[in-house]
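Extended Data, panel c. Modelled sequence:
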Amino acid sequence: MKYLILLLSLVSLSSYAAEKKILMLVSNGFYAPEYYTPRAIFEKNNFQITVAAKYSGLTYPDRRNVDFEPVKADITFKEVNIDDYDAFVFAGGNGAWEDFFPNETIHKLISEAMNQNKVVALLCTATGLLGMANNFSGEGEPIAKGRNVTGYKRVEGILKFLGKVNYITGEKGKPHVIVDGNLITGRDPISSELFGKTVVNALK
């Protein structure tokens, strides 16, 4: 009897996970491990994954990632319906500077997701959105003001001075992820696995 109960519990958990929907957002020039590593963890946990990019068709990783394939977007940023997803996961990489930071569609998307208390997760360079979204001129209201955040060193100044967040550096050389309510931030590529697992835990 106890084995039947255990089996039913596992089936129930699997079904619950399958109901959760993740939107992964990538930029042209994304850092491949910061997309593929979390995605593999999401797939292992049976989450439904949709990929969004600025344009339809193929989105290519950073030129340093020659061993990785480009990603085919399912939808464009402008086609995203916030209500369709439980979590929004932004992969890092140099492409964030062009496809994420100045993009008003992305600003609106992340702002609405935060307001609706969806899980919002940003990795590495993508964390700079927390300073840029609706605040590109530096005269807006930062969407994560006062929240605990980490992020890539190249956007630390953006996060501190534009985003007005509590930036937490973490220990150099070790994976570092910060959770503050519905907001999840990862510092760098070596944090990709921990980042993915943290998103899974937040959704379960």
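Residues 1-16 have pLDDT under 50 and may be disordered. This feature is highlighted in the accompanying rendering.
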